[in-house]
Write a structure and sequence with these properties.
By secondary structure, the protein is an alpha+beta fold. It folds into five domains: about 90 residues; about 130 residues, PAS domain (Beta-Lactamase, 2-Layer Sandwich), CATH 3.30.450; about 60 residues, no CATH class; about 30 residues, no CATH class; about 140 residues, 2-Layer Sandwich (Beta-Lactamase). It is built from 14 helices and 15 strands. A hairpin with a 2-residue loop joins strand 11 and strand 12. Helix 2 runs antiparallel to helix 9 and helix 9 runs parallel beside helix 10. It starts with a helix and ends in a 7-residue tail after the last helix. The C terminus is likely disordered.
Length: about 500
C-alpha cells in the first residue's frame, strides 16, 4: 500500500516504533471494546438475573408470610372461645383472652369478629401501649360501606373457609384474612367470621427467611415517593400479580412486583434493590486497563525505538555509509561485524566488497608506481595521454619530437602530434576517447609530427589503465628508422605488456 508507506516515517526505528505503538493502541482499543460491549452487558445481565431472583425471593417470602397468617386466622376461628363469642353463649372467655394479650403475642395488628349476617361485633387493636378494644377509627374502616366492607361481603358470598389478600385501608395497606368461625366439634353453618390483619410492611419481617429491609420495600400503589419509572408503569396499565418491572441506575438494579387485593385490583408494590457492585468494579477496572494500556503503549514505543535504533538503525546507517564509500574514490573502511543476524550477514558481504576495492586500489597504486618508474627511466619514447591531451612525456619522447623540454608538449592534443589523415591515426584518436577498452591495444603504424615540422613514421603501442576519471593511455612510440631504437623500444614494450598482464579489469 503505497499511500501507507508515504505516511510512515522514513527512518526504520521510527517506523517500527510507530507500528508497534499503533498495534498496541489497537490492542488496547480491542480490550476496551470487548469490556464495553461484551463484558459489561454480560455483567449487567447477571446482575439483572440476580435482581430478578431476589425479587422472586421477596415475593415468595411475602406469600409464605401471608399463608402463615391465614393458617393462624383459621386456627383462631376454630377455637371454642371464638364460637361462643360469635353465638353469644359465653363472650367473656374471648374477651379475657384478648384483654390479656397486651404485648401482641399473636403478631397481629387488629382482630375483628363478625356475626353470620356480617355485622361487626367487636374489634381488638394492638399498639405500642397495649390492646385497644372497639376503637372508633378501626370500626369505621371495617364498615360495610368501605372498600373492606365490599370485599368482606364478596368473601362471605363465596363461602370459602379462609380467604386472604391485601386490603387498602385508610391507614395503609394491610394483609387481611377472613375465616369462618366453625369449630370441627360444632355442627351447622358458620357461627360468624374472624378477621385478622397485619400491616403489609410488617408481614415480611415475620418470616423466618433471609430478608433485608435495606434491599426491599413494601409500599402501597398510591404512594407518592415511588420512582418515576414505577409511576409510569403503574399509570400505563394495571399490573397483574405476575408482572415484574426491572430498571437500573448507576448504583442499583431495582425490581418491582405488583400484589393484587382481594378484589383483584393492584394494591401493593414489592420493591427490591440489588447493588451493581460488579458493574461498578468492571467500569473501574476497564478504566485502569485503558490507562495501563496507553502507558504501556507509550513505553513500548519508546523501548522499540531505542532497541531498533541501537540494534538496527545505527548499524544500517554505518552500512549505508560504507556502501556509498564503495562508489567514491579512495579506500573504504571496513565495518565491525557482531552477531549473526541479517544485518551482520549484509555487513560481511559489504566488507568483502570493500576489501576487494581496497585491494584493487593498492594493486593499481603499485602498477602506477612501476609505470612511473618505467616512464621516467625508459630510453624509448613514451607519452601519457589523458582525455586525448598530452599530460607528460619522457626524455626520449621529448627528443623524438624535437622539443626543448617535456613542458612544451604538455597540453597539446594528440591530434596535433599524429597525422590525422592516416586511418590508423584516426583509429588511435578514437581509442583515446573510448571508455570501453582496457589493457593493451595492438600496435598501430602512424606518422608523428615533430615540432620542427618533420614527419616520423612510428609504431605506436597503447596501454590503457582502468583508472577513475578521464581515459588514460600510455603510448609507446618506436620510430621505424633506427634499428637500435626499435630494438630498445621492443624491450621496454615487453615490460609494458608484462605490467599490463598484472592488471585485472577492476573498477575502483
Amino acid at each position: 500500500m503505497s499511500w501507507l508507506s508515504t505516511l510512515m516515517p522514513a527512518k526504520l526505528a521510527h517506523r517500527i516504533a510507530l507500528t508497534l505503538g499503533l498495534l498496541s493502541l489497537a490492542l488496547a482499543a480491542a480490550i476496551w471494546l470487548y469490556g464495553q460491549y461484551a463484558l459489561r452487558p454480560a455483567i449487567a445481565q447477571s446482575e439483572q438475573q440476580a435482581a430478578r431472583a431476589q425479587a422472586e425471593h421477596t415475593r415468595d417470602l411475602f406469600v409464605e408470610a401471608a399463608a402463615a397468617l391465614e393458617r393462624q386466622a383459621d386456627s383462631l376461628a376454630n377455637w371454642d372461645d371464638a364460637y361462643l363469642y360469635a353465638t353469644g353463649a359465653d363472650p367473656q372467655r374471648l374477651n379475657a383472652f384478648l384483654d390479656s394479650r397486651t404485648h401482641n403475642a399473636l403478631g397481629l395488628d387488629f382482630l375483628a369478629v363478625f356475626d353470620p349476617r356480617g355485622d361487626l361485633m367487636t374489634t381488638a387493636e394492638w399498639g405500642g401501649k397495649g390492646v385497644f378494644r372497639d376503637e372508633l377509627m378501626l370500626t369505621r374502616e371495617l364498615d360495610p360501606a368501605t372498600s373492606f366492607g365490599r370485599i368482606f361481603t364478596q368473601a362471605v358470598r363465596q363461602g370459602k373457609k379462609v380467604s386472604g389478600g391485601v386490603v387498602r385501608l385508610a391507614r395503609g395497606p394491610y394483609y387481611v384474612s377472613i375465616a369462618q368461625i366453625r369449630p370441627a366439634s360444632r355442627q351447622g353453618g358458620p357461627a360468624g367470621y374472624l378477621v385478622t390483619g397485619v400491616a403489609a410492611d410488617k408481614l415480611l419481617l415475620q418470616t423466618k427467611g433471609a430478608y433485608s429491609a435495606t434491599l426491599a420495600r413494601v409500599v402501597p400503589i398510591t404512594a407518592r415517593d415511588l420512582p418515576d419509572q414505577v409511576l409510569h408503569w403503574v399509570g400505563k396499565r394495571e399490573p397483574a400479580s405476575d408482572e415484574l418491572l426491572i430498571f437500573r441506575d448507576d448504583a442499583t438494579t431495582q425490581t418491582w412486583n405488583a400484589i393484587p387485593s382481594l378484589d383483584g385490583k393492584p394494591a401493593l408494590l414489592l420493591g427490591s434493590s440489588q447493588p451493581r457492585d460488579m458493574s461498578r468494579l468492571a467500569s473501574e477496572k476497564l478504566a485502569q486497563i485503558a490507562l495501563i494500556a496507553v502507558g504501556g503503549t507509550l513505553l513500548l514505543g519508546l523501548v522499540a525505538w531505542g532497541v531498533v535504533h541501537a540494534l538496527i538503525s545505527r548499524r544500517l546507517g554505518a552500512l549505508l555509509q560504507s556502501v556509498h564509500g564503495l562508489t567514491r574514490p579512495g579506500q573504504t573502511a571496513l565495518l565491525e561485524t557482531r552477531g549473526n543476524d541479517e544485518v551482520a550477514f549484509l555487513t560481511r558481504a559489504v566488507n568483502q566488497l570493500a576489501h576487494g576495492k581496497n585491494t584493487s586500489i593498492e594493486a593499481l597504486r603499485q602498477v602506477e608506481h612501476q609505470l612511473d618508474l618505467v616512464f621516467a627511466q625508459s630510453p624509448s619514447a613514451m607519452l601519457l595521454v589523458r582525455d586525448g591531451q598530452l599530460s607528460d612525456a619522457n626524455a626520449a619522447a621529448t627528443a623524438l619530437l624535437k622539443a626543448q623540454h617535456s613542458a612544451t608538449l604538455v597540453g597539446k592534443h594528440l591530434s596535433d602530434i599524429v597525422e590525422s589523415s592516416d586511418a590508423t591515426a584516426r583509429r588511435l584518436l578514437l581509442l583515446t576517447q573510448s571508455r570501453q577498452l582496457d589493457g593493451e591495444i595492438p600496435p598501430l603504424l602512424c606518422r608523428v609530427h615533430a615540432l620542427d615540422g618533420s614527419l616520423i613514421s612510428c609504431d605506436i603501442k597503447a596501454l590503457r589503465l582502468p583508472l577513475p576519471g578521464k581515459p588514460t593511455l600510455y603510448l609507446f612510440i618506436s620510430p621505424l628508422a633506427g634499428e637500435q631504437a626499435a630494438s630498445g623500444g621492443a624491450e621496454h614494450g615487453g615490460r609494458l605488456i608484462s605490467i599490463s598482464d598484472r592488471l585485472a579489469p577492476r573498477h575502483a
